[in-house]
Amino acid sequence: EDVKKYFLRAEEGVVPVVVGGRGQFPQITPETIAGLRASLVAAAKATENDAPAHRRVAFLRTGLEFTAASAEAQRLREAVANGGALDPAVASAAMERRWQLMRAILQNQPLAVNVGAVAANDGPLAAALHWKGPSEIVKAGKFQLPAGDDWLNGDQSATRK
Question: Can you tell me the distance from the alpha carbon of 54 to that of 28, in angstroms, rounded to the nearest whole number?
Fold first, then answer.
């Protein structure tokens, strides 16, 4: 039921954007992300004793969390495009967290997000936010998950079949 709620919320709350005949990153509010996340957290709790189902929920969560990180970066880009001031520290933090998440997804959940394709098309976003790439500290660090919330690092073999 919680996964069903997740997909229904996604259909209602994710607004596709087409610019010049090409799809762009959709508009997703922080409130929509929070609702989607709540559905998947509830689904994870409901499937704790069903390992294959639990892994499938983690797979969905991986895509959602990447979407959340990307939506944050896109909101910053849109604000700058609309004449807003760019806070370099905020932009750098958002892009560095997103970069660490992309690396973790590539290592742990490579089928959840096509990180290579995303990274290949990230130039305009990075340029808009004046981001030159991850710092050495970020490159050396690991993507941090909240304590007790290991949706990214579990065995994902069920999603690879």
Answer: 25
CA dihedral (67, 68, 71, 76) positive or negative: negative
How far is residue 53 CA from its own chain's centroid? Answer: 21
Among 3, 107, 103, which Cα is nearest to 58's?
3
d(CA 12, CA 15) in angstroms, rounded, equals 8
* Structure confidence by residue, pLDDT tens digits, 54-95: 999 999 999 999 999 999 999 999 899 899 999 999 999 999
How many whole angstroms separate alpha carbon 56 and alpha carbon 75? 29
Token digits of residue 24: 């762009």
State how far the alpha carbon of 62 is from the alpha carbons of 44, 73, 98, 117, in Å.
12, 17, 12, 16
How many helices (H) and strands (E) would you count in the chain?
Answer: 7, 2
Token readout for 157 is 């073999």
